[in-house]
């Protein structure tokens, strides 16, 4: 991480966000006046079953979709009303995505996969190679940087995906079911790596349906029927204070 980490600074703040969709003749409210804050340096898990609004919330946090109403600040910028082009620029600079299915390009080496978001950002070749190598070193895969995804285990592929998320030094890592395609042993190894990255100062928001995975974060926020509540607290009390 570059610079000094301000642990008293909100990394993201969502206030009274709702998201409505029209399905046939019916209006569906996927998010219902949700509010939450994640401070810089936190590791927070958001857990919920299918249909709870979890994916909609992830898309909002990841600047992949805009809310119908409410406000969203990411790293000090209000992003809820930005155009698609500006949201794409925010995603590239401020969010490192980690996906369940890794989303690696099979014809590229681990190093080349990690370099991809840096190419889109316009980082010069020499610098992006240095950043990619440093990221692979951080996930202990520098010796495999020339290997293609098919030559790597599932856990190693996820480490490459994590390195790709880290390479541009984004202020937020957003992990969507990062252990969903892995066995128990490998899942534990990936979660240990995420915890180590968090201890180094990376802010991580983890989306999951698995409570055993969620409990490895420092905070657990449950989503149900488009509303949020924090584990161990009354849902309406927490909804008002997040």
Question: What does this protein structure show overall?
Answer:
Keywords: ATP-binding, Nucleotide-binding, Transport. It holds the Pfam family ABC_tran. This is ABC transporter ATP-binding protein. This protein has 242 residues and is an alpha/beta fold. It has helices at 54-61, 84-94, 110-121, 125-138, 154-167, 184-199, 211-214, 235-241, and strands at 10-23, 26-39, 43-47, 69-74, 77-78, 95-99, 172-176, 203-208, 219-224, 227-230. Strand 4 (69-74) and strand 5 form a beta hairpin. Helix 4 packs across helix 5.
Q: Which features characterize this protein?
A:
six-stranded mixed sheet; four-stranded antiparallel sheet; ABC_transporter-like_ATP-bd; 28% strand; nucleotide-binding; ATP-binding; disordered C terminus; 36% helix; globular; 242 residues; ATP binding; 10 strands; alpha/beta; Rossmann fold; 8 helices; ABC transporter ATP-binding protein; single chain
CATH third-level topology: Rossmann fold
Given as residue ranges, the uncertain stretches (5+ residues, pLDDT < 50) are 234-242
Overall spatial form: globular
CA distance, first residue to last residue: 27 Å
Order of helices and strands: EEEHEEHEHHHEHEHEEH
Which percent range fits the helix content?
Answer: 25-40%
Q: In which order are the strands of the major sheet placed?
A: 6-7-8-3-9-10
Secondary structure tally: strands: 10
Determine Rg (CA atoms, Å): 18 Å
Number of alpha- plus pi-helical segments: 8
The CATH class assignment is Alpha Beta
Q: Could you name the CATH homologous superfamily?
A: P-loop containing nucleotide triphosphate hydrolases
């Amino acid at each position: 991480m570059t610079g000094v980490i301000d642990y008293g600074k909100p990394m993201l703040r969502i206030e009274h966000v709702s998201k409505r969709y029209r399905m046939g003749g019916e209006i569906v409210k996927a998010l219902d006046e949700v509010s939450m804050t994640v401070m810089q340096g936190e590791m927070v898990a958001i857990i919920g079953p299918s249909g709870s609004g979890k994916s909609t919330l992830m898309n909002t946090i990841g600047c992949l979709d805009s809310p119908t109403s409410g406000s969203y600040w990411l790293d000090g910028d209000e992003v809820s009303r930005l155009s698609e082009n500006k949201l794409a620029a925010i995603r590239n600079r401020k969010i490192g995505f980690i996906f369940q299915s890794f989303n690696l390009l099979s014809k590229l080496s681990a190093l080349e996969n990690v370099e991809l978001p840096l190419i889109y950002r316009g980082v010069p070749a020499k610098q992006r190679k240095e950043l990619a190598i440093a990221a692979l070193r951080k996930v202990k895969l520098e010796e495999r940087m020339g290997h293609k995804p098919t030559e790597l285990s599932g856990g190693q592929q996820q480490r490459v995906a994590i390195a790709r998320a880290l390479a541009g030094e984004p202020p937020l890592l957003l992990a969507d079911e990062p252990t969903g395609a892995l066995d128990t042993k490998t899942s534990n190894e990936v979660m240990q790596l995420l915890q180590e990255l968090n201890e180094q100062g990376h802010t991580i928001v983890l989306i999951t349906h698995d409570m055993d995975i969620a409990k490895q974060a420092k905070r657990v926020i449950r989503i149900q029927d488009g509303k949020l509540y924090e584990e161990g607290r009354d849902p309406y009390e927490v909804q008002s204070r997040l």
